[in-house]
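Researcher: Please translate sequence to C-alpha cells.
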Amino acid sequence: MSLVKDTAIYGLSSIVGRFLNYLLVPLYTAVLSAESGGYGVVSNVYAYTALILVFLTFGMETGFFRFANKSDEDAGKVYSNTLLFVGTLSLIFVIAGLSFLVPISDFLEYPDHKDYVAMMMIVVAMDSFLSIPFAYLRYKKRPFKFVAVKLFNIIGNILLNLFFLLLCPWLHTTYPGMVSWFYNPDYLVGYIFVSNLIMSASQFLFFIPEFRGLSLKPDFKLQKKMFSYSFPILIFGLVGILNQTVDKMIYPFLFYDRQEGLVQLGIYSATSKVALVMAMFTQAFRYAYEPYVFSISNKSDSSSMYSSAMKYFFIFSLLAFLSVMFYMDILKYMVASDYWEGLGVVAIVMGAEILKGIYFNLSFWYKLTDETRWGAYFSIIGCVVIIMLNVWLVPEYGYLASAWASVAGYGIITLLSYIIGQKKYTVDYPINAMFVYLLLAAILYSISIYIHFDNIVLRLLFKTLLLVIFVSYIIRKDLPLSRIPFINRFIKS
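Model: Translation complete:
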C-alpha cells in the first residue's frame, strides 16, 4: 500500500507538473518556427545539461538510499556526507567550466552564445546539488513537500517564459519604454535559459530546514564506501542518459548543414514530447519504486512484490500507449502545425519509453546484490548500439532512425538484464500474462490504423471503443470489480 500511495502522489505531481511544463512546447513551437531551428538549439543544449546532471549527482541518490537504510549507518550522517560530496563536485564544475567558457562554447559550436553555455553550467550545478535534498524528502516519506517544490519550480518557469516570450514582445511593440531597458526582442532562445536559471536558484529557499544542523565535517570512510557503491551507478547513469540524449547531442553534427540538423532536431524533439505521458508514468514509478525496493528487500515475499510491480507497470504502460496513439488527432495540436511532419516518431518513442521502464524494473537485482557494475555494462552496450545506429542511419533517414535506434538500444539491454538477472536474483515474472496484454494492445492498435474514418468524430468514437475493450480486459483479468469493497457490496445485494 505504501508503494501505491507514494506512486499516486508522485504520479499526480509528475503528471500535473509535466503537463504544465509541456504547455511550454506549444509556446516554444509557436514563437520559434521550425525553420528557424530555435527549438533545436534548446533541445541540443538541454541534452548536454541532462548528461552533466548525472555526472554531478554521481549516483549518490541511489547510494544515499542504500546507506541510509542500513542498520549500521546513521541516516543524518549519510545525508550530510552525500550533500558535501555532490556540493563540492558541483562547485568545482562551475569554477572550471566558467574558467574555460570560450573553448567549451567553441567546441559545442555556440561561439556567439557563450551566455547559453554559462547559464547551462550554473543551472545544472544547482540542480545536481538540490537533487540530494529532494532524495532526502523521499527517504523521509515527505512527498507533499517534494511535490510542492517541484510544482513551484515548474509553474514559476512557465510564468517567466510567458513573461519573456509573450508579454515582453507585446509590451516592446505597444509600450516600448516599459521593457526596452532590459528586454532584447532578438534574444528569445536566451530567455528560456534565463527563466530556468531564476527558478533553479529560487528552490534553495525551500530547503533551508533541510540544510540546518548539517555536519560540515566529512566522514571520509563513509564517503569511500558510498563512492565505491555509487561509482558504477554513475557510469551506467552517464551511459544511460546518453542513451536518452545522445541523438540530440550529436544530431547537428551528422549533417553537412548544421542549421538543417537543428531544424530537424527541433521537429524531432517537439513531436517526441507528445509521448510525454509514458515518460511521466515511468518517472512517477521510479520516484516511488527505488526507495520501496530497498525497504522490502528483507521481506520473505519481496520477490512476488517485484513480480506484481513489473506486471502492473507493463499493463498501464500499454494503456498509456494506446491512449496517446488513439487520440493523436487531438494531441497533435499541442505543437505548431509546421512541426506535424514529425508525428510519425511518437509511437516509436513511446515504445522506447516502455522498454526503458521495463529495464528500470529489472535493474533492482544488481542494486540489491551490490553488483552495480552490471548496470554499467548494460548501459555501455545500449549506448554503443544507439550511437552506431544514429551515425549510420540518421544522415539518410533522419529522426526516424534516431527513434528506432533508441528502441534497439533499450531492447537489447532489457533482454540482457532479464537473462542475467534471473541467474543472480530469480523473480518469477508473469511473462505469459504480459505477452497476452502486449498481443491485445498490438491488435487494437493495428485495427485503429487499418480501419479509418474520414469523419474525426466517428474516428475518435471508434478508437474510444477500442480503448474501452482494453480497459475492460484489465478490469476482468487483473482488477476485478468484485474486489472493490463498495462494488462488491452492490453486487452481493
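Researcher: Any highlights?
Model: The chain is about 80% helix and 0% strand.
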